[in-house]
Write a structure and sequence with these properties.
It contains four helices and six strands. By secondary structure, it is an alpha+beta fold. Pfam families: 4HBT.
Length: 169
């Protein structure tokens, strides 16, 4: 692997692409989650506006990883990441984790909880990880973390949340 590609993978958490069974399964689940996202996006003006540049780059059953760069539309009046954006990401990412279970519908929110841990600023690269810890017959429970890397490369939590959704099979 060329040095530049290694550096980019380390800096931006790019998954390693291989030809083993795990990679094939992940790519199938990734494709499925991306299709759900492409179907939802045009029907949700807030997602289309705030998450226009989000990239879902990894999915396996129960776990989805995505990334987005903080742009001006994501900022509050103080110039840092708006709390409503973080809540929107937790809502969206929780739905994508549910979709990774093979569901076409990502459900309706019954509750959402967000903890804001540190600020992010314009140009920060955010890493989003969502996990569906339980997908039952009518309810799904998800957790989401939003992180950034500081100047030294350390991973810093920006926000974390839990999200419960009503789903129908």
């Amino acid at each position: 692997m060329p040095a530049v590609e290694k550096q980019l993978r380390a800096q931006y958490w790019l998954p390693q692409v291989g030809h083993d069974k795990v990679s094939i399964i992940m790519s199938s689940e990734l494709s499925s989650v991306q299709k759900v996202w492409e179907r939802i996006r045009p029907n949700s003006p807030i997602y289309a506006f705030l998450l226009e540049d989000v990239e879902i780059y990894e999915a396996q059953k129960g776990v989805v990883r995505a990334r987005i760069t903080v742009s001006a539309r994501h900022l509050n009046s103080k110039g840092t990441l708006h709390g409503a954006f973080s809540a929107c990401v937790i809502d969206w990412a929780g739905g994508m984790a549910i979709a990774s279970h093979g569901l076409e519908s990502t459900g309706a929110s019954t509750d959402i909880h967000v903890s804001y841990l540190s600020p992010a600023k314009l140009g920060d690269w955010l890493e989003i990880e969502s996990r569906a810890s339980k997908v039952g017959k009518t309810l799904a429970f998800t957790t989401v973390t939003i992180s950034k890397r500081d100047d030294s490369g350390q991973l810093i939590l920006v926000a974390q949340g839990s999200h419960t959704k009503y789903i129908k099979h």
